[in-house]
Amino acid sequence: MNSKLTTLIQQGMALHQQGQFEGAKVIYEQVLKIQPNNFDGLYLLGLLLAQNNQWIKAADFLSKALQVNPDHGVCHSNLGNVLKAMGCIEEALEHYNQAISINPNYAEGHYNLSVTLQGLGRVEEALEHYNQAISLNPNYIEAYSNRGNVLQALGRKEEALVSYDQAIGLKPDYPEFYSNKANVLQALGRMEEALLSYDLAISIKPDYAEAFSNRGIALQALGRMEEALLSYDLAISIKPDYAEAFSNRGIALQEVKRLEEALVSYDHAIRIKPDYAEAHWNLALCNLLAGNFNDGLQGYEWRWKNEKIHKPNEVRKFSEPLWLGAESIKDKTILLYAEQGLGDTIQFCRYVSLVAELGAKVVLEVQPPLARLFKSFEGVSQIVIQGEPPPAFDYRCPLMSLPLAFNTQIDSIPNKIPYIQPPLAKIERWKIKLGAKEGLRVGLVWSGGFRPNQSELWGVNKRRNIPLEKISKINLSSINFYSLQKGEPAESELLESCNKHWKKGNFYNFTGELNDFSDTAALIANLDLIISVDTSTAHLAAAMGKPVWLLNRFDTCWRWMLNRNDSPWYPSVRVYRQEKWGDWDEVLERVNADLLLIKNSQQHDFSS
């Protein structure tokens, strides 16, 4: 390069670095007039245009620069950035890969490739290249932070915390790092620590709306509802079009039973963001809780677009049409299939016989633990176990959509009870095993199943569960109690500490012999009363027509509704609700008093 071109390039770069883009552009163009294939002129002008979001022109000049010097890794990486901004993702990946192929020690090239792979959901590959970037540049702050995001997406939350802490150590005044760390702590159920981290983020950035909203979620999980509502209000005051904060606020209002205000908050979220599936879903649950089945059941269909309920890659694809009650299904085959929990399947399979009455041949697909119980279910032509291929069918409908298909209202809920019958042979086997009946037999469930891969449900599980030590306070002599408790950690807790909490020799645990729900149902058939938190076992007993005393958390599930101690779904259910958030003692006092009345009266009337 001649001295004149060298001087021009240096002058252009000086202006460029000072932010005097127009002056720099003029000089770079002058260089290219003198020497059209000058690499520095093409490359620097391409960078300048990219900095000003002139993506097409930038891509043109960077491409020309690579024609001059195809082995310039940094240019490949920058062209990748431009192509990515243009939406040409595959081409961008090619250039990022070319950049690190030319220079495997190019940390920024690995980082740029990682960010793009992360955006494509290829998180394992992204993690590999973030690790490469960090090994090459141990002070690469952004790589630590983004690696934390990837580790969180992979469910490796403890490692994510380490990565965020490394980013914070390098840049302790960056609020997003504290907020990201708090999100992971929240997902781990470490709410107090999450609050501290959100507060640190807000102390650095007082107008951090996202941190205020997420802080509200943590406060809500701790039962500090008024503080949570204040935190959501602060988020909204900072960012009035913050749909997520309005939706979160609606959940908090719903949980403290201020339903009218919750509905307004959800409506705000949807007006801001009409396709916001989670807000539509929350609105539907609130309507159902309020007894508005018309809007609630319609809105419930938004679950298919709500990634917290059904992740896109988990939603089943069908070529057969969805049936929601409009078409005649006489002489047609319809697949009815479970899509959520075991309790949901038990509750909504009551509609199966109604579908059969329309003249359809019903194929019912259920989870494996329910298959034997449903083997002779009324109206079913064939049972299919979830995961097995179903036979050919004309229509299909998920069980949770059947209330909509039948235009269900509170006063038209099909509650022909019992609609589940355990095998007679198993009932007889348990009758023999339990022996001669002496006193009241009560089945107990105090804990819902723990799902380690669904951290979003941990808070609900914690609120609905009762410690074994606490549930044992309803122990009355001459009443025999039978554990129906399946799942960890409750089963292990029972084995380790039953004698400590239940000392009178009137507690029996046969759950090791309960291999599926047909076994559980047969045992229930030999009991007088089931006392249970909100679990599938409560649904099973109620569907059999057994008396069920449901121990219900303050922030109730929509199906138990509000301000009533009975259930329109199950005539044999009596609901014992928490009057205060988290207060099981008062609930158990009422249960204990009612058990005493029944024990003393010798009349097993569980309904009043």
Please characterize this protein's 3D structure.
The chain is an alpha/beta fold and 608 residues long. The chain has 3 domains: 72-305, Alpha Horseshoe (Serine Threonine Protein Phosphatase 5, Tetratricopeptide repeat); 316-412, 3-Layer(aba) Sandwich (Rossmann fold), CATH 3.40.50; 424-601, Rossmann fold, CATH 3.40.50.2000. It has helices at residues 3-17, 21-34, 39-51, 55-68, 73-85, 89-102, 107-119, 123-136, 141-153, 157-170, 175-187, 191-204, 209-221, 225-238, 243-255, 259-272, 277-289, 293-300, 342-348, 352-357, 402-405, 424-434, 458-464, 468-471, 490-501, 517-525, 536-543, 584-601, and strands at residues 333-337, 361-366, 380-385, 395-398, 440-445, 479-483, 507-509, 529-533, 548-552, 573-577. It has a 6-stranded parallel sheet with strand order 7-6-5-8-9-10, with helices on both faces. The chain has a 4-stranded parallel sheet with strand order 3-2-1-4. Helix 25 links the parallel strand 6 (479-483) and strand 7 (507-509). Helix 13 (209-221) runs antiparallel to helix 14 (225-238) and helix 19 (342-348) packs parallel to helix 27. The longest helix is centred in the C-terminal third of the chain and has 18 residues, at 584-601. The radius of gyration is 31 Å and the shape is elongated. The mean pLDDT is 90.
